[in-house]
Amino acid sequence: MVPEKSSIGTSSALVATDLIGTTDMDFELDPAIIAALPAGAEIIAVDPHGNTNWSNGFRVAVEIGDGGEEFFLKIIDREDAIAMAIGEYESQKALFQYLPDNISPALAHGTLELNPDSAFFLTKFHRLQCGIIDPILLATILTKLHTTSSSPTGKFGFPVTTFKGYIAVVNEWTDTWEEFFARQFKNEIAWEQSVRGEDAEMEHLAEKFFDKVIPRLLRPLQTEGRSIKPVLCNGDLWHGNIEFDVATQAPIMFDSCCVYGHNEFDLSLMVAPRYRLGALHVAEYVKEMGVSEPREDFDDRLQLYHLRNELVVSGLWANWAHLRQDVKKTMRSLIDKYPQGLKGAEPIIKFKEKAVL
Questions:
Q1: What's the whole-number mean pLDDT along residues 11-27?
Q2: What tens digit of pLDDT does each residue of 33-49 get?
Q3: Which residues on neighbouring strands pair with residue 174, listed in sequence order?
Q4: Which residues contact 291 (CB under 8 A, 6 or more apart)?
Q5: Residue 224: CB atoms within 10 Å
Q6: Which of 72, 75, 113, 315 is 20 to 30 Å from the Cα of 85, by its Cα?
Q7: All domains of the chain, ordered by start, with CATH?
Q8: Beta bridge partners of 64
């Protein structure tokens, strides 16, 4: 994604005035939110804290007996709000199983009682500060996630719909990563054109791309004796979605868009120069995890994975609409490189078989 802030560590002047009046004790939380707080909690403060173009964030401070707690509350007021809250809740819940030191626990989600078209997501509040995570540390965290997690079905997908921005990811389970990736990429091409207008050249490129490039780069991962294990991926890992807990200095990930997929998919946003997680982070991860076979395809697989993000960003923000041209340029380049499609993989396959013999 792009540097649009959403989350548990930044402040904002936006206030959902239909939900909260002021922050000087003259406020009222929706009953559904109050019910999600710990029993006996007395609300002492609600402050605006973080926003995106599709949600508002708040710090909720409460007293429970002689102690106090703070929560981060996200209010989503748009189409698909309920599904978006569920997707974030289930993503953070899944990640927390494997990375409890680097994920804020998902505590609750629900539909607002006073506004049934809106939804909320509740988690622990962290005071966060910006910074770029050390490549070795990020590699360690991702390696732990990708080596200890596994798909509950053994397939690629996720139990619920997740959202990249506010764009739904089709997460129905598939047997192959190629099928999962191609299905979503087709949806994102169609969605981006619904926002930015039809593009005849994109349609022409897509026909060749789905026929030649995607099978050539993804099918070899799961053929000729090769296999990849579906592991839990963050799905939207860029520098804006990972910050540092002020108290512990531990990196905390948020705003995830999880999928059980190919582990290398979590490197896809590290390709573009505008992101501050980049080549050094990829290199350290590769030192820890290695790359999938065929190794020769690694760089092009990352370029392929990155195209999905660029289309979504093009559609979400008008000032990034030019990324459509970058997507088409990369598509043309990969089509030119793999004009034979799967037939072009035969030398790699034969060479590997010969090497084994």
A1: 36
A2: 999 999 999 999 999 98
A3: 156
A4: 264, 298
A5: 16
A6: 315
A7: 31-129 (3.30.200.20), 135-351 (3.90.1200.10)
A8: 67
